[in-house]
Amino acid sequence: MFYKHIHNRIQIVLVIVAILFLVIIAKVFYTQVFDYKKLNGYAANLWSRNLPIEGNRGIIYDRNGEVLANNLTTTSLVLIPNQIEDKEETAEKLSQILGVTKEAMLEHVNKKSSMERVHPEGRRLDYETADKINDLKLPGVYLVKESKRNYPGGKSLSHTLGFVGIDNQGLSGLELMYDSYLTGEYGAIKYFSDAKGNRLELNEVYEQPQDGINMTLTINNEIQKSLERELDNAVMKYNPDQALGIAMDPNTGEILAISSRPNFDPSNYQDYSTEITSRNLPIWATYEPGSTFKIITLAAALNENKVDLNKDQFTDSGSIQVENARIKCWKHGGHGTQTFLQVVENSCNLGGYTGTFLSSKMLI
Questions:
Q1: DSSP secondary structure of 51-88
Q2: Is 151 left (phi over 0), alpha (psi -120 to 50) or beta?
Q3: pLDDT at position 287
Q4: DSSP assignment, residue 185?
Q5: Which of 3, 51, 241, 334 is the most buried (most CB within 10 A)?
Q6: Which residues are designated catalytic?
Q7: What is the pLDDT, as a whole number, of residue 316?
Q8: What is the pLDDT of residues 84-112, one digit of tens each?
Q9: Is the separation of the CB atoms in 71 and 148 below 8 Å?
């Protein structure tokens, strides 16, 4: 009886062990098959490091394919603090090349981070500076590709195109309005390191960056150049506070050229006040239509056959009383008797008022 009781206990223990063993096997199976990607990702994040590679910003073209905004390839300085063997020497040499104090560079090399981007002194380096850093062959010091926005036309179309910041983010104009389309996506060079940050002898993984979407405007750059030239001539001759111009296709409403003065160089926007960089006068300011509205009112009168340009005549005496106001012609003494075609040619104020009166009568 006693042995039978022991035997039953042994069987129960064996069943429990078997169940536990099956649970462990099921857990291992689930981990290896279903949780593999997630856990592998966690592990990779612990010992993989990324050197970012910036995607190019989308190019902006005029209607004929002429480049209005593109990119120049530059390099920027990135540090991996845990890989820097001699922090004092590294800070000293880099500070001499970049023209900053050693103390400022020590702050970068001593950062408690997996990667330190040297900003702003290490951003958008010219080729000569980048070559000097590259020749040092310092551990933990890397140069990564970045792009810098370039505007071949200089100040031309500056308010419309806008400008970007040091991180290639749109800050004004079309660069800001369509920033989400123009901005590319980062790629990376992935390398592997141990818990102390020491680089492992494993193959690097290259993830290609994605460039932004290109944009084509209705602008005709040849017409734009002509407009810029004429505005410069007007400013030089008359020295006005402001000057502006727009060229539009009347059949489609497409803007062929647009500009204003004062303007600015979008590559160096920080050298100008916000009053200049943020005011695209043709679309920002408001203006009275003035004599241009005479064409609209007279066209309405013609459309309703209220006036004949060549036969009907109007006598401009120099002024006319309208309610409690006296409207005067811009020409002292008026233009005398003239046809309505001559009213348009002379931009006669009183003739324009008569055209307004005739066109308003037809609406009553």
A1: EEEPPPPPPEE-TTS-EEEEEEEEEEEEE-GGG-S-HH
A2: beta
A3: 79
A4: B
A5: 334
A6: 291
A7: 86
A8: 989 999 999 999 999 999 999 999 999 88
A9: yes
